[in-house]
Amino acid sequence: MVQDGQIIAETAPIMSNSAEHVRMSHTLVFYVNGKEVVDDNVDPEWTLLWYLRNKLNLTGTKLGCAEGGCGACTVMTSKLDRSTGIITHLAVNACLTPVCAMHGLAVTTVEGIGNVKTKLHPVQERIAKAHGSQCGFCTPGIVMSMYALLRNTPKPNMKDLEIAFQGNLCRCTGYRPIIEAYKTFTEEWETMQMMSKSNERSPTNGGCPMGENCCKKIPITEPVEVFNSREFCPYDPSQEIIFPPKLHISKHLDEEYLIIKGKNVTWHRPKTLSELLRLKDQYPNAKIVVGNTEIGVEVKFKYLSYPVLIQPTSIKEMCTIEEYPKVLNVGASTTLVEMEKALQNQIAIKPEYQTRIFSEIVNMLHWFAGKQIRNVAAVGGNIMTGSPISDLNPIFMAAEVKLNVSSLKNGVRLIPMDHTFFKGYRQNVVSPEEILVSIQIPFCEKNQYFIAYKQARRRDDDIAIVNMALNVFFEPESNVVNKAYLAFGGMAPTTVLARKTCNIMIRRKWDTDLLENVYDSLLNELHLPDSVPGGMIKYRKSLTLSLFFKGFLHVAKKLQVCLPKEIESAAEGFHTKEPQSSQYYQMVPKDQEPNDLVGRPIVHASAFKQATGEAIYCDDMPKFSDELYLAVVLSTRAHAKILKIDATKALSLEGVVAFYSAKDLPEEQQFYGPIFHDDRVFFSDIVTSHGQIIGAIVAINQAIAQKAARMVEIEYEDLQPIIISIEDAIKHRSFFDQTPKHIKKGDIEKAFAESKHILEGEARMGGQEHFYLETNTTLVIPREEDELEVYSSTQHPSETQKLISEVLNIHANKIVVKVKRLGGGFGGKESRTAILALPVALAAYKLKKPVRCMFDRDEDIMTTGTRHPFLLKYKVGFDDNGAIKGIQVYIYNNAGYSRDLSSAVLERAMFHFENSYKIPVVDVYGFMCKTNIPSNTAFRGFGGPQGMFVAETMIRHIAEYLNKDPIEVQELNLYKEGDTTHYNQKLINCTLRHCWEECLLSSNYNERLAQIQKYNKENRYKKKGLAIVPTKFGISFTVLFLNQAGALIHVYTDGSVLISHGGVEMGQGLHTKMIQVASRSLKIKPDKIHIIETATDKVPNTSATAASAASDLNGMAVMNACNEIMKRLKPVIDKKPDGTWEEWIKMAYLERISLSATGFYKTPDIGYSFETNTGNPFNYFTYGVACSEVEIDCLTGDHQVLQTDIVMDLGESLNPAIDIGQIEGAFVQGYGLFTLEELVYLRNGALATRGPGAYKLPGFTDIPETFNVSLLKGASNPRAVYSSKAVGEPPLFLASSVFFAIREAIKSARQEYGLKTYFQLDSPATAARIRLACIDELTEKIAEPDIQRQWNIVA
Fold first, then answer.
1. Where are the domains of the chain?
2. Per UniProt, where does FAD bind (predicted)?
3. How far apart, in whole angstroms, are the C-alpha atoms of residue 1042 and residue 1019?
4. Is 391 annotated as a binding residue?
5. Are 78 and 46 in contact (CB under 8 A)?
6. Contact 1047/1120 with Cβ under 8 angstroms?
7. 214 is known to lie in a ligand binding site
8. Average pLDDT of the chain?
């Protein structure tokens, strides 16, 4: 119908209940992996993920975040569109999807597409064979994202791949091998293969696409595929699982009015709009659920309860898209992907000018969340949720969209989505009983231009910091503004229209004279108080000006307004290009025995199981019939006295079994810690941080336990001071040791006196959340006589055993800790797993029943700590050439509330602060700051990257002071063979300069630097930067006694071998490497060797799997045990030299020769004294060099990594594929540390970044566009097993090459603005820091905010 020239969707007449004949059902029916599931006892509060894991025991689908941000829970849903006959397959987040929403649908999980015993699906096979699975926890979700893509698009292109993985995260691999695996399904790959075959048949003189980087011109190693794509099984779409015939034939499930009643929530799926309106009239506060992407998060993390949920996806008026003369009417329940497809169809068939708004919506949807969210989220939900940083609402407001709402009492009305629509934060003018039926998006006119921009912390799958939409109408055939609409998100509690600014534009020419008036108006109109939530005040204000300027340039270009050439590139943002990569490593000798796996790029031992979801992680273990669940009660104060702990209400809840707190443990058994016992199992008198455990509820299931934990009442009395930052700690002298650690070499005052130049400065690095995809998990099973069987996701089983023994006061020989595998660790599960394992062990011990707990993501982040933030203050003396004479450094780390491993982290920072440079005279002090934040802990690099950061900062400070290229100062001071470090360790087999030279050559550094300088002169607001960074990482635990390992080898009479060793498999390929070592030592086929788990009853008193030393230590132990077996077998082999392994083993058994042996290894010739500054703290060093090129957008602070070239000395690699995977994974994790990942602490000490929504890991599209990794050829290492080198931690710091390349780009921008002095750039180099460092005429308009009033504080 038409009303006042506008189209309103006509509402069906409201009929009485008696007049309708509705088929009603209370039974949920859907299909999982082809099998029908019929359940009449469903709770609407259950998610699909919960149902799959707990009701159907399909544990291949993982829980990573519970907010749809990591993709570990991805499954595929399939639905038949009966009007077209098309079956649509969607990748969805099972963690958010309500199981009730599956009625009448088919669900496919990773288990349903292939398995190890029968047949792998090509999607599973390729990711495994291409080394795209390390810890494997994210792998099933990535597999299912790819599978869903193939079901819809059997021959995708690279752009399809990019979009498919926007909602998936991986913390281990660095993404490159996953992309390499799955690009083999694409059109581009097929074309490339055809061209390759054609070139093989017809050789030409064509040049290599790598140009000067062609492998034939680089004397490093031969480029070799780490996998053979020719071995992949072909993909045949016709062999896929069919859609359930029963669903195909019958439509009765689609036509049912579904009502599912639970204890607290009732689920309605009405069939008609009239039914829906009656429901909303009856239950005005009922929530409308389509994708559950907002409500699911509110229920899980904000603990909101919605008794009535209504799913409108069967209501035609809300799900259809119709074209009218002036508008496109889009049903409010239309999903974002459905709307995107409809808009793309319009763009394809309509004149360009008519669909300018549609084009900007489609462009924005690319950056809107991940594909899994867009597949299910409704456009109406985005509007009604009313987030002030919604990606679409600014577009809708600027586009003059109108909303069609309806209610039983008031009928239909059309609401303009203008400045009157939002009444306040997440509040609008739609009445509670009204339903948003559809939205009307207008077509554009010829004289109308539309553009939208968004700036976030990360481009893909992130919420906006600020976004803008600009809609401008011009007088015919002119550049005079007729009217304008300018909307912003992120600048107020609601999306806002800058109406005053719009009025200023009217009747003005669209030229540069307009800009200054608009800037001034925007700053006046969009006021942000200094204390506004979200912080970043100056940055957000600057974005309003920058984004408008970009919009101005876009429109000016369309109007053909003449503008300076150097600013033309400013209008465009960055777009992902198809990633390119190469890997170089040394092949094994041709005469190496086939059974000898050392040096071969074999696949991770668990890769195929991980790709099929069959790999078992701690929480995947089957539940016991009498098993209980534990939930923790956490502190909500940073520093307070506990006045009362009252669990009465919690204990009265049905299903609650017990509550434990400090009163349940004797005082002497309450303390624990890895070095000092200064942490508590339960805090009782005073809390000194948010997230400390005060008590634990044990109940019959997770839901009850967590609900009861929230019911425990804690009364506090706040205490002062609250110390959050390092500066706070320095001010209050809050250190764990008032006497700092100290390393001194030479006379620093004399060195300064003899130095021609002296500079002083600071370097600051923020912390980093580990974000292993598998959160901390513990299952404890009591056995007889105080025996406990503990399954824990720990990197340190022996420490977990020891601490449980001490807390429960039982002998360690009665406690067995077992670890099958971890879903990532990175140091975060070395010491902090005890925070969960101890309460769970206590509960199991007291109750004599199995007890389990898996931390939710927010709990894990709140309790377990992060990488240490560091502040480093330096004073450096040097000569005219830049040769460093002496350095004095004061190093401060933010330890948090307890010591944990902070002293060892600080020591490594002190050992590594010089990075790769020879410093003749050194005076370095180290302080551990005691603060009121969660206790910080080990993280890949263990203080090394923070220490090295100050060296690279100083080098650049010196270079800029002397007006030299940093590379000159670097090369002048670089270590060489035979040099001695500041802790007096001589460098032997130092390949640092070799790596440096190879990296300069392979990266084509000098030529690219000249090209960058030319580019920067031609572009004002886009700048490129290039930086090269070396690393020298010491390998060993710096605590001497930890450098030991054991192994146990059993050989059975069939010739099979079982290995047990002290290391934990957490994705780094440790078990795989141990099998390789054993295959060489025993000279047998690898399929005869197996490793079941790591367990304290097999190998006792083990060190943590940490410090990059696990392969070295355990490899030598395994080799020694194997050598002992071979020594015993020698007489047997001598008797029958032509016999087989199996024959020798049977002979040995019959001759009563022991076929079980232990191996032990301790690292020789190490040990260091701080008192005398003598000894060798490290066994050897791993060296590497990286060169990175970036481009930054000076207006927004966004950046893109264009190329990274890495050269690493890994000796003679045990497994090049695994080692290259570790290099890439460490680099991308380091890239996150130095750019994207920012911890946000509120002024009350609470951590605001508690999940992937607020804390941004690098995603698939964040890796370098060109990513080349080379293993140095001809390197050896006599100090480790089979001449290999450790790899886990050393590459991480190489990612600082991106940081320093960003700094070079910023420097170029500043110099163009006339700023030529040195500037400090703190890490991480976030978009906000980059933008505000690029000082220009826009940022100078904005006053500095009052830091003391700011919402957050830098720790």
1. 626-722+800-849, 1044-1162
2. 288-295, 368, 391, 436, 454
3. 54
4. yes
5. no
6. yes
7. no
8. 95
Instruction: Report the residue count for the chain.
Output: 1355
Q: Are 757 and 786 in contact (CB under 8 A)?
A: no
**Which SS3 state, helix, strand or coil, does residue 62 take?**
coil
Question: 1268 by DSSP, 3-state: which?
Answer: strand
- Say yes or no to pLDDT of 851 above 70: yes
Kindly tell me the number of DSSP H helices and DSSP E strands found in the chain.
38, 54
- Residue 558 is predicted with a pLDDT of 95
Q: How far is CA 369 from CA 178, 432, 914, 1235, in A?
A: 21, 27, 41, 20
- CA 1149, CA 1052: separation in Å to the nearest integer? 9
How wide is the angle at C-alpha 335 spanned by C-alphas 268 and 328, nearest 5°?
A: 115
961 exposure class (CB count in 10 Å sphere: 0-12, 13-18, 19+):
middle
Q: What is the DSSP string of 1013-1063?
A: HHHHHH-SSEEEEEEEEEEEEEES-SSGGG-EEEEEEEE-TTS-EEEEES-
DSSP of 178-210 = HHHHHGGGSHHHHHHHHHHHHHHHS---PPPTT
Is 879 marked as a binding-site residue?
Answer: no
Question: For residue 198, what pLDDT band results from cuts at 50, 70 and 90?
Answer: low
Q: Does residue 712 have a known ligand-binding role?
A: no
Q: How far apart are CA 1292 and CA 942, in angstroms?
A: 11
| Position with higher pLDDT, 1032 vs 738 | 1032
- What are the tokens at 440? 């009307």
Return the closest-CA partner of residue 1094 out of 653, 753, 792. 792
**Coil, strand, or helix at residue 974?**
strand
pLDDT of residue 332 exceeding 90: yes
Average pLDDT over every residue of 998-1015: 97
> Are β-strands 851-854 and 741-745 bridged in parallel, bridged antiparallel, or unpaired?
unpaired
> Which CATH code fits 626-722+800-849?
3.90.1170.50
Class of domain 1044-1162: alpha beta
Q: Tell me if 826 is assigned to a ligand binding site.
A: yes
Helix H or strand E encompassing 270: none
The pLDDT of residue 16 is above 70:
no
Q: What is the mean pLDDT of residues 336-365?
A: 98
Q: Is the pLDDT of residue 64 over 70?
A: yes
Q: Which residue in 1057, 1215, 1048 sits closest to 1118, CA to CA?
A: 1048
Residue 353, helix vs strand vs coil: helix
Question: Is residue 107 part of an annotated ligand binding site?
Answer: no
Whether 425 and 534 have beta carbons less than 8 Å apart is answered as no
Residue 170 annotated as binding site: yes
Percent over 70 (pLDDT), the chain: 96
Whether 536 has a pLDDT exceeding 90, the answer reads yes
DSSP for 669-727, written as a single string? GSEE-SSS--EESS--SEE-STT-EEEEEEESSHHHHHHHHHH-EEEEEE-S----SHH
- Using pLDDT thresholds of 50, 70 and 90, give the confidence band for residue 1183: very high
Three-class secondary structure of residue 452 per DSSP:
strand
* Residues marked as catalytic: 1289
**Residue 759: pLDDT over 80:** yes
